[in-house]
């Protein structure tokens, strides 16, 4: 019984909406009734939603109308009188061809939906976000209003197609306003006032009424009676619906030669119709506790279009207004759809001819007033401004592109822009350094959580988005910035230091040879001289000067050394003279006798210090200990490990794998260990397939959580000079790896 009541209520709504929306598709009203009958029966057998009302819908009707008027414009059907053009349109031939175009487009759209459903491509509807769909339907409402202005004002504007067609049509309508047909305008105004007042009364009384008042049907019946008995067509030349044939037409095969010309519009119809239907169906399913199969919905909707196209129907989807009526009046199953189809069938078979005197202006007003809900969606702008600026931009771009580029190109541009916003947001994620919340195993952003503490010697790096080809380079740059280690500069520095060290070793080797030679010469000179000798070595051996110290000597000489500076080499005894005249010498290049220039590596540059009796390795070690990377933002001993938190990564591509391998390789050259934490099993499998792991990068670098990686780093480097830090004071030692 609830399905019977709901079916009658929805069936009564099908009648005015079917005839009115057929005008949006530029088809005779009777084909709107056909569209309300056949597809509903097919969906009853194959659909999974219990509350959707399948039939005509505003947006799809406008999209079909754009195709029919593009391929069958009035200019192609002007009546010829011999060689002269009378200016009149052969309406019968035009409508017949438009029906063929609409049927071919509908069948092709249905086939696309069936194929997508069979290959489990039901998720395609998820690419149409709610802001996009709402903006698209809002813009489509603008197209519907402009399309009905000719019926409301009784004018005949030129219909344009393609980009900016809405602007051109609206401009043409405005230029024809001085030629408005006053009787038609009066019918439109009276119908609009009556319909709006009746709908407001219906909304006010709806809590007290078991079923809503069929105000559209009452408006149609009233308008038909007034038009018939006032002879509006003959006396005031008011345009009426015209002949409505009774009975059902036999099925016919659509013209397949038209498929190539309507493929773009057919695909747009398939996607838009499915997106509207599945979003509405999931809403009702969630409310009433049952499941809607997205792939099966594609198949059901596709079969409804394919079968309907053979019976001269045009594209269908679920109607929000009729579905709400079916749900609020107690509908439980799709038996309500069968009952509504029977109501439409009775009208087609017996009651259709009664509406032949119905003014088209009344149908135009019904379409106009029923767009109230779509016009209310402009409030989304305020809501999205407060909640999400990105969604607001998607809404505005969709609305503008749909208005200016027409419905098919507007949809393509809108989906493309929406996907670009996703790419941009994943390409520019938030990068953060994590710290431990004391007493827990939680690691949070140190910049947004004051209680988080950094782990000494460990940098924990995380990206808010997955790492893939579009942001892999940015990931590496952010890691350098957050860790404070500019790898490229540090590697350049390291290579320079290695080159300098090689030069030092070569010079030390040459100096060792010269030193050995000088020692031999000094020993020979010591045997010949009775006293100690201190000599100064100049650049050229020929200019050496020896000073013999014997007897009374100056104070400086009594201290056991003599210096002679030539700006290049100094020879200084490092110990007092002994009786056997053996001394320990130190050679300095570019320095001073006091050794005060041995401050830091930044002052020495290419200087070399070699002490006799000490190895060059010790000298290199001392030099490297003096070197700091303060100019590069970090001291070499501030960090020993970097942990990459990959818990937000749900896939990796070849570019990401290559980038991570480079990170391991580059940081290892500056003695910084890299570890990865939180990798999903599927990501690890992709690492294996991509050849990520090797002898240098093993699975020992993988950890289940950041906490495990931190504990390993601290245990692994506990012998270093880093301060010990316990991430969790309450941690059980058994959790350590």
TrEMBL record:
Instruction: Please give the PROSITE patterns that the UniProt record associates with this protein.
Output: SLC26A (PS01130), STAS (PS50801)
- The secretion signal range is none
Q: What are the entry keywords?
A: Membrane, Transmembrane, Transmembrane helix
Compositional bias ranges of the Low complexity kind: 609-621
Query: What transmembrane ranges does the database entry give?
Result: 21-46, 101-123, 180-198, 266-286, 396-424
Q: Which CDD domains match?
A: STAS_SulP_like_sulfate_transporter (cd07042)
Q: Which residue windows does the record flag with biased composition (Basic residues)?
A: 501-518
Ranges where the STAS domain occurs: 448-713
Q: Where is this region: Disordered?
A: 498-527, 596-621
Report the subcellular localization. Membrane
Q: How does it sit in the membrane?
A: Multi-pass membrane protein
* Broad class of the protein's primary localization: membrane
Q: Which GO terms describe its cellular component?
A: membrane
Q: What would be an example GO MF term here? A: secondary active sulfate transmembrane transporter activity
Cross-referenced NCBIfam families: sulP
Name used for this protein in its record: STAS domain-containing protein
Please name the source species: Monopterus albus (Swamp eel)
């Amino acid at each position: 019984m609830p399905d019977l009541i709901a079916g009658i209520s929805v069936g009564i709504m099908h009648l005015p909406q079917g005839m009115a929306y057929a005008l949006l598709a530029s088809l005779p009203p009777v084909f709107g009734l056909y569209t309300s009958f056949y597809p509903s029966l097919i969906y009853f057998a194959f659909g999974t939603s219990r509350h959707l009302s399948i039939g005509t819908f505003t947006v799809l009707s406008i999209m079909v109308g754009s195709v029919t008027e593009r391929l069958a414009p009035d200019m192609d059907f002007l009546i010829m009188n011999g060689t002269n053009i009378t200016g009149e349109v052969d309406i019968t031939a035009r409508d017949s061809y438009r029906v063929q175009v609409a049927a071919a487009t509908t069948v092709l759209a249905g086939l696309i939906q069936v194929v997508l459903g069979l290959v489990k491509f039901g998720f395609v509807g998820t690419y149409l976000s709610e802001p996009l769909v709402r903006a698209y339907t809002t813009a489509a409402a603008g197209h519907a209003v402009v399309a009905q202005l000719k019926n409301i004002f009784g004018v005949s504007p030129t219909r344009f197609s393609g980009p900016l067609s809405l602007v051109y049509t609206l401009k043409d309508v405005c230029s024809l306003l001085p030629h408005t047909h006053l009787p038609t305008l009066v019918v439109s105004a009276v119908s609009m006032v009556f319909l709006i007042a009746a709908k407001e009364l219906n909304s006010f009384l709806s809590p007290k009424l078991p079923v809503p008042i069929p105000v559209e049907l009452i408006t149609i019946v009233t308008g038909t009676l007034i038009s018939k008995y006032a002879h509006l067509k003959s006396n005031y030349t008011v345009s009426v619906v015209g002949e409505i044939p009774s009975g059902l037409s036999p099925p016919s095969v659509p013209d397949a030669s038209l498929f190539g010309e309507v493929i773009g519009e057919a695909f747009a119809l398939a996607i838009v119709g499915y997106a509207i239907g599945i979003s509405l169906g999931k809403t009702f399913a969630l409310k009433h506790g049952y499941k809607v199969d997205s792939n099966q919905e594609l198949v059901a909707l596709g079969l409804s279009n394919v079968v309907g196209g053979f019976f001269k129907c045009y594209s269908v989807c679920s109607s929000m207004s009729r579905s709400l009526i079916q749900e609020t009046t107690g509908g439980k199953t799709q038996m309500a759809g069968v009952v509504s189809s029977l109501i439409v069938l009775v009208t087609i078979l017996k009651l259709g001819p009664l509406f032949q005197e119905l003014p088209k202006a009344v149908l135009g007003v019904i379409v106009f007033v029923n767009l109230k809900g779509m016009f209310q969606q402009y409030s989304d702008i305020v809501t999205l401004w407060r909640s999400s600026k990105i969604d607001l931009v998607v809404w505005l771009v969709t609305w503008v592109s749909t208005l200016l580029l027409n419905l098919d190109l507007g949809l393509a541009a809108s989906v493309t822009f929406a996907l670009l916003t996703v790419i941009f947001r994943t390409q520019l994620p938030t990068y953060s350094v994590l710290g431990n919340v004391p007493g827990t195993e939680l690691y949070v952003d140190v910049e947004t959580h004051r209680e988080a503490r950094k782990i000494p010697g460990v940098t924990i790096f995380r990206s808010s988005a997955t790492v893939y080809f579009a942001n892999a380079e940015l990931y590496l740059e952010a890691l350098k910035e957050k860790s404070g280690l500019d790898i490229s500069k540090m590697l350049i520095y390291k290579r320079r230091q290695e080159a300098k060290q090689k030069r030092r070793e070569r010079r030390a080797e040459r100096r060792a040879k010269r030193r050995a030679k000088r020692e031999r010469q000094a020993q020979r000179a010591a045997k010949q001289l009775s006293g100690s000798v201190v000599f100064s070595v100049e650049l050229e051996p020929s200019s050496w000067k020896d000073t013999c110290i014997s007897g009374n000597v100056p104070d400086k000489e009594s201290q056991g050394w003599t210096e002679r500076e030539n700006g290049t080499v100094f020879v200084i005894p490092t110990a007092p003279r002994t009786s056997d005249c053996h001394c320990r010498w130190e050679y300095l290049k570019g320095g001073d006798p006091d050794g005060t220039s041995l401050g830091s590596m930044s002052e020495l540059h290419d200087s070399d210090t070699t002490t006799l009796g000490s190895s060059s390795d010790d000298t290199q070690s001392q030099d490297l200990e003096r070197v700091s990377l303060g100019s590069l933002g970090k001291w070499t001993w501030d960090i020993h490990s970097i942990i990459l938190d990959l818990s937000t990564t749900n896939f990796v591509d070849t570019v990401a794998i290559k980038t991570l391998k480079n990170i391991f390789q580059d940081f290892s050259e500056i003695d910084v260990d890299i570890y990865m934490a939180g990798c999903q099993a599927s990501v690890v499998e992709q690492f294996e397939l991509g050849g990520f792991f090797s002898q240098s990068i093993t699975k020992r670098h993988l950890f289940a959580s950041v906490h495990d990686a931190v504990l390993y780093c601290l245990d692994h480097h506990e012998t270093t000079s880093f301060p010990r830090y316990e991430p969790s004071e309450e941690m059980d030692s058994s959790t350590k790896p």
